[in-house]
Amino acid sequence: MSAVAVIVVTWNSAPVLPGFLTALPDGMAGLDWHLVVADNDSADDTVEVLRTLAPGATLVQTGRNAGYAAGINAALNAAGEYGTVLICNPDIRMRQGCAKRLVDSLRAGVGIAVPLLYEEGRETPHRSLRRESTVLRALGEALIGNTRAGRFPALSELVTDPAAYRRPTRADWATGALMAVSGDCLAVCGPWDESFFLYSEETEYCLRARDLGYATRLEPTAEAVHLGGDSQVSPRLWTLLTLNRVRLYRRRHGPLATAAFRAAVLLREASRAALGRPASRAAAAALARPGALRATPGP
């Protein structure tokens, strides 16, 4: 079996990295693997933690907060020979045999495999599968909310059907906290798009892979816990997520469709801002500014 490169991008990840490294051997059981970490100029003890707890890992220090996609590319360039890559957030905790189940599912046109994700302290799986953005889906989410709209595939990106998480299910894209990517898919798709500093880079990659014949598929027998991030509560990160969502749509559609999509997303954020959500207030203000989509700001 070809070696698996385990790719991790860190930035001030010292609090979560020990737990990731502790769970890694069980998660990678049955595979020949090597850990490659790209550190985006952490100001905490991330590098020291890695050198102490995983002295055999390959460490790439980018020297700047280069963004998630740039970190992935830097780690891939340093990984040497591999058959498959496993791209992980450092706040992932793989359960026993997770990686091998993902790697084994990379066949028959599947280029990207994702696990069943659980949020810390919750017994029900996280809804990690998504459909491609459309104006109608953005409008549906704005008017009736993600969860209710998710029952109707035409009206939401979010896949909410519980049955989709009990069986191998193909999706347009999926949450990128943990994904196995075949060597063939990587070779055909090329590097990750570094113009997305954070958020939408996994969406872009999954859609690009799909366009080139490589599907994204959930493997429900592979399980992991995701400690999660603060994009849901941080106005700064939610704004970046929202803007990048529209930027990606603009890459794939014309100006009229993009204007309609942007308006639908703005309606969603403005309506939630009116209910007192600070993150949506910040996102709506940013989205309404002329020139908001010209460049991807860093956090």
Walkthrough of the structure:
Helix content is 39%, strand content 20%. With 299 residues, it is an alpha/beta fold. The longest helix is centred in the last third of the chain and has 20 residues, at 255-274. The protein starts with a strand and ends in an 11-residue tail after the last helix. The mean pLDDT is 93.
How many strands, which pairing sense, and closed or not: the largest β-sheet? Answer: 9 strands, mixed
Question: Whole-number average pLDDT?
Answer: 93
Spatial shape: globular
Helix content: 25-40%
Low-pLDDT segments, ≥5 res? none
**Helix/strand-derived class?**
alpha/beta
Q: Give the helices and strands as they follow along the chain.
A: EHEHEHEEHEEHHEEEHHEHHH
Please state the CA-atom Rg, rounded to the nearest Å: 19 Å
Measured between the Cα atoms of the first and last residue, the distance is 40 Å
Strand content: 15-25%
Give me the secondary-structure topology.
Layout: E1 4-10, H1 17-27, E2 33-39, H2 46-53, E3 58-61, H3 68-78, E4 84-88, E5 92-94, H4 98-104, E6 110-119, E7 129-130, H5 135-144, H6 146-149, E8 169-171, E9 173-174, E10 178-182, H7 183-189, H8 201-211, E11 215-226, H9 235-252, H10 255-274, H11 278-288
Parallel strand pairs: 1-2, 1-4, 2-3, 6-11
Antiparallel strand pairs: 4-10, 5-11, 6-10, 7-9, 8-11
Helix pairs in contact: 5-10, 9-10, 9-11, 10-11
